[in-house]
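Students often ask why we bother encoding 3D structure as a string. The short answer is that it lets us treat folding as translation between two languages. Here is a chain of 367 residues written in the first language.
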Amino acid sequence: MKILILIIITMSLFSCTEKDSDYVYNYDPVRTRTNVDSRDGNIYKLKHLGLDAKVDVLFVVDNSGSMSSIQRNIVKNADLFMNEFIMQRHINWKLGIVSTDQRQDPFLGFDSLYGSDIFDYNDPTSISDGVQVFRDAMDSLGTNGDASEYIFYNTLRAFQNYSDPGGTRPEFIRSTSHLAVIMVTDEEEQSEWKFGGKYEPYTFLNTIKGYVNKFRNVRFYGALNRKDLEGCERPGDYTPYTGSQYEKIIDASGGFNISACLDDFGTRLADIGKDIASMVKSPGIPLRGKPKVYTIRIHYKDQELCPGAEVDGGAWFYEDKTNKIVMYNFNFVEDFNNDFLKIDFDLDDGIPRDVDPDDDTRGSCKK
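And here it is in the second language, the structure alphabet:
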């Protein structure tokens, strides 16, 4: 009789299962490790997250006589481009602007910082004023620059002039940052022709990669006017984009080009901004113990954050294999130095049970 009772109990334990969840993921994508202070109980301080969140952005903009309309398009749509990454508060970014004229100094972001550290994200005026600084710098390029365009040369020249830690000029590139270079021109690249083989696209790309560590991305993007791009009308002697130095370095670095000949090209800069933001991966937050997934509750201040797919309004999902919470972004955070997430859950005791679906309701969770 004892044996029969034991068999019945055992079968009852393994015949019941917790319900499936659409916010549990079983794969293990590569993510930045975090260093969470285990002494805080259910409090997870945001400043302890190992955010891989630094991005340095360089615009290299042709300022020769034919560039007026392209420059105006960038100025007009500056907010669309910048909102794709500067408004994501977890991204630590800085941005600079240089021209294609080999004799000119940078126009923004080198002698003084232009980046996330100067923005107050809780003050709309600070954001609008900051974007206007970018517009003014782009306006100041003008169209009186050298008729010869040296995008590769001027990129390297700017980095070299602002890379000596012991020098009088501040460093522009941070070795722990991702790097994005946006090339804007209506002419072919002429650096290799004048300055030699180190400006051959693949050689030049390897040189630029040497400024950041090997675990960071370096991407080149283009907003170009070439005769074979959509909307462009150029005489037959102009070189196409296909097979150009631009195409080679963009493809080799994993970036992309948008046609500068289209009326809406300025709005397409937002696609570049979005891709730059994608370099930064949201880290997994390792939980202190294995949870019963349906009991997980995450609060930021007085607001519960919803689980589920991002397209459905979810803010996070649980990664089963690594026992982590993964946030899609941290746009809701006001102060990374002092704020925290409160994550509550019941520990999994290893015994599967039937779960009443009503137990998984989140009355205060608003999508």
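Translate back mentally: Residues 19-50+282-360 form one domain. Keep this in mind for the problem set.
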